[in-house]
Every structure is written in C-alpha cells, then in structure tokens.
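Example (one chain per record):
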Amino acid sequence: MNAVQITKERKIGSSEPCYIIAEIGINHNGSLEIAKKLIHEAFLAGADAVKFQKRTPEICVPKDQWEIQRETPWGTMSYIDYKRRMEFEKEEYDEIDRYCKELGIDWFVSVWDVEAVDFMKNYLTPVYKLASASLTDFNLIEKVLFTGRPIMLSTGMSTQEEINEAVRFVLKFNPVYPLMVAHSTSAYPCPPQELNLRMIQTLQNHFPEIPIGYSGHETGLATTVAATVMGACFVERHFTLDRAMWGSDQSASVEPQGFQKLVRDIRDVELAFGDGVKKVYDSELGPMKRLRVNINPVHK
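Predicted structure:
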C-alpha cells in the first residue's frame, strides 16, 4: 500500500503510525473559545489533528427549510439563521490556524460546497475531507481535485459501486492522486452491529494502493482500537468537552479523558504488533531458567 504524504514530516499509510483525528465538527456551537478548548484538549490527548466542518449555509440548506423555526440555546430562530450562527468565518479560522501552529497539531476541515473549497485556499491545511454525504457530489470532488491537496473520502450511507465510482473519478483525474478512503457508517450514534469493521479489509482488497481508514460514530472506544488492528491507517472520532452539551453530534462524541485513553490504546497496540519474527526476549530468560527442566532438550 502506498503512503500519502500530507506534510513534510507526516505520511499516512500502512507502514506509518495511525493518524488520529479529533473531529470537532460543529461541537464548538459557534464559540471560538470552546473550539480552542477542544483543540487544546485534543493536543493534550495526543491527537495528530483536529477537524472542523465548513459550509456555506445558503448553499447547503434547502431553500424550503430556511424559515423553519428551531429551538436553540440562543432562543427560537429560523433554521438558516441557526446554520449561519454555527459557522466560523475568516476571523475565527485565522485564530484556529494560529493556535494549531502554536501547539503543533494539524487541522483541516470537511468541505461541504464549492465556496467552502475556495474559502479554505486561505490556509495550507494538509488534507481536504469529503464527508459521506458528499461522496456522490462530483462537482465538489472535482473542485477539491484542482487544489491538488490530499483527499479523504468517507463512505457512510454508500454502496460499494458508489465508492468505486468516486475512486474511479479521482483516479481518472490523476492516477496517482493522493487519495485516502475511510470506512464509515452514518448513524449517530452507530450500534456495534452496524459498524461492519470487516469493510476496512474489503476496501483494502478493492484499493490496495490507497490508504484505508475509519471514521467512527459509535459510543465506545474498543471498536475504534479494533479498526486499527484491522489495518486502518487513520481513525477519526467526534470530540467534545461534554457529551451533555447541546448539539446533534455530542452523543456520538468522545470526551477528553476518553480520547486520551483511545490514543494511548492505539499506540500500545501499535507497539504490540512487533515484527512477526519469533525471538526470546531478555525478560523471558529468568522465567526460562526457573521453569524449564532442560533448557536445551535433546530430541531423538
């Protein structure tokens, strides 16, 4: 499997450490202060990157839903006004960019429309993410392709043929385009029986030259660790300060203490993989002398 170079120092691929993404998404609830707390907690947990979502509400919200009234922590407002309130603009992203550079943690976004792609040209983020909902949006995919930056495609709510089509579209544009594909199930939260982690290996078999990852929306941690055991080169989990906070993604998110445990367990698993060559470790010599009657038995 080829690795994708995303920064000067970092590749994502089967021979590289798993790239761990804390998906802040819209869990900041439109607050830069909360966003910065989340970035800091992700950094302390050992995440490689934080991710946000960038939308142009006037494009992404169907016109017939604009004036639907919604109850929010900030009072009753139209759905379009709510979506506008949740979006960060250049002033906020300038500060996010500065703060992530100060900490030394990567950041990038899921782009949901072509204007969002143009907006993100202001920043040298290492990756463009395309959410599962965008897998069949070929106009958006093409817009990102012209940036030349690495792409992560999520595959929730998609058939295998739709995944194949999206990958073919990218590779027709450029047969060696820096592409990564994430297995995902788009349920929030996702029950364990629908995680279908064996799809990671299915995607690896379909696309042996493409790094395959996992975007999880479950409530536990063990299954995300299991995804790395099954070969996921990158993993993404929604991240929050408190699952009780207001917002649609909070219940399927991981809190800071849990994210610390997730990173720790993934790194422990990577250490435990070893090299597959059987050896006797120095730590085994004492038990071997005590427990074996004959260290060098003669076989006849």
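Caption: The longest helix spans residues 256-273.
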